[in-house]
Amino acid sequence: MEKTKLARLAVEALKKAYPEAVCSLEYTDPLQLLIATRLAAQCTDARVNLVTPALFERFPTLEAFCASSAEEIEPYIRSCGLYKTKAKDIFAMCHALRDLYGGVVPDTVEALTKLPGVGRKTANLIVGDIFGKPAVVTDTHCIRLCGRLGLTDQTVPQKVEKDLWAVLPPEESNDFCHRLVLHGRAVCTARKPNCGGCCMQGFCRFAAAEK
Fold it and tell me: Is the CB of residue 33 less than 8 Å from the CB of residue 59?
């Protein structure tokens, strides 16, 4: 099947299965989402959501983060894993936001990836969720599911992103990636995909091979 058609079938199937396509990280402003996404690296969103209320209560503004230190941030994020590196990135990120962008979270992938600790996955999430622009967030669920479907044969995030930009309707791309996360957690898991309960089994390459 031609990949553009396959992508549209996947978009429509997931839209019916998961009408609400939302980010599972909890936040109230762009800075909070940026920090929460950095914390979510090699950590579950559920864990991050347990940690961020106390973190953002202690550091409610960009200025509060800038006036602190990585060492002051560390205790609040310890349970997220790699907390020393993440604390250094958050502290440096906030200073860069203040010094490079006047304290305003930028709205392009190019500008966002100039911030410490911000890669294309995080940048695309911010661009899509905060600014409502087309975005492709290539997290582990996206890479796994799109490979199984046959939308890409790549496993490197930036290469998967490139493949998906070529076949996804731009206006659907951000919600599609959120729905992949929901489906990857509930049905198409890494360990044991439930092809029999999948809304995409009729056109999925992996499901066809399993028959």
Answer: no
